[in-house]
Amino acid sequence: MSDIGKMMDDLYEVVKDRQANPKEGSYTNYLFDKGIDKICKKVGEESAEVIIAAKNNAPDEIIYEVSDLLYHLNVLLVDRGVDWQAITDELASRREK
Question: What residue ranges do the domains of the chain occupy?
Fold first, then answer.
């Protein structure tokens, strides 16, 4: 099994660095420049695409769309100042209930 936590932490740091050090032509910076409404719109679109891929029973599409969703969720988290540790802490607290 791969280490999804490490991958998400690494991606989060790349997105966070892009926010702090904008790069011309960067899609990530485009999203930050457009603001939270655009970021949320992309999260919604990608969520819908995951649902469609799942309904189509298309594993390759599911992989592609979930990857897009996780990327856009990272942008959202960085924009809002929430890190993956907070998410894992919340999930761990739910497991204990």
Answer: 4-95
Residue appearing with tokens 């990272």: 74
**12, 75 in Cβ contact below 8 A?**
no
Is the CB of residue 43 less than 8 Å from the CB of residue 69? Answer: yes
54: burial class by Cβ within 10 Å (0-12, 13-18, 19+)?
A: middle
Q: Could you tell me if residue 26 is left (phi over 0), alpha (psi between -120 and 50 degrees) or otherwise beta? A: beta
Q: Is 23 helix (H, G, I), strand (E, B) or coil?
A: coil
Report whether CATH 3.40.190.10 matches the domain 4-95: no
CB 5 within 8 A of CB 84: yes
Determine the 3-state secondary structure of 25 from DSSP.
coil
CB 47 within 8 A of CB 65: no
CB atoms within 10 A of CB 86: 11
Residues 32-59 pLDDT 10s: 999 999 999 999 999 999 999 999 999 9
